[in-house]
Design brief:
3 helices; Jelly Rolls; alpha+beta; 36% strand; globular; 151 residues; single chain
């Protein structure tokens, strides 16, 4: 009898853990991704939780030229970005649900001016200011995102 109860409890615990993992895993889990636009490649940090998105690139002193941060939302949003506590001049591309750039803007450090497109977006990509222009990246370009790992 004890053996049967113990096996039953193990099964219940395993099922509960499996269910928890299945419902709590974000398909865009934080970590790193490779972003390709035209023939240009970026290595980006992924910010997919509310806390990661709120912090973004604040308090960083530098950002390598071919690196950036990809903000990933659970569903399309229309909220804006600002540069409070961000010391690096950045450019931002807002990317639609179908992976197309809908707006690109330059953002100046340490300002609270809000930057946002006129339509919903699912991703926002921040890079060193001027990277999009330097690389001929424009509104309407398709973005390929490959998630590399999870934290």
């Amino acid at each position: 009898m004890c053996r049967g109860i113990r096996e039953y409890l193990y099964r219940v615990i395993i099922c509960a853990l499996f269910s928890f993992l299945m419902f709590s895993v974000n398909i865009y889990a934080s970590g790193w991704a490779k972003v390709v636009i035209k023939d240009k490649t970026l290595l980006v940090e992924v910010a997919s939780t509310p806390e990661e998105r709120a912090k973004g690139l604040m308090f960083r002193k530098t950002l390598d030229y071919n690196k950036g941060m990809l903000f990933v939302f659970d569903s399309p949003v229309c909220s804006g970005f600002y540069m409070k506590n961000t010391t690096i001049p950045l450019s931002i591309a807002f990317i639609s649900e179908d992976n197309v750039i809908v707006k690109i803007e330059n953002m100046e450090p340490l300002t609270t001016m809000t930057h946002k497109p006129d339509r919903d977006y699912l991703f926002a990509l921040e890079v060193v200011q001027g990277w999009f222009k330097d690389n001929g990246i424009e509104v309407g370009d398709k973005v390929l995102i490959k998630y590399l790992n999870n934290r």
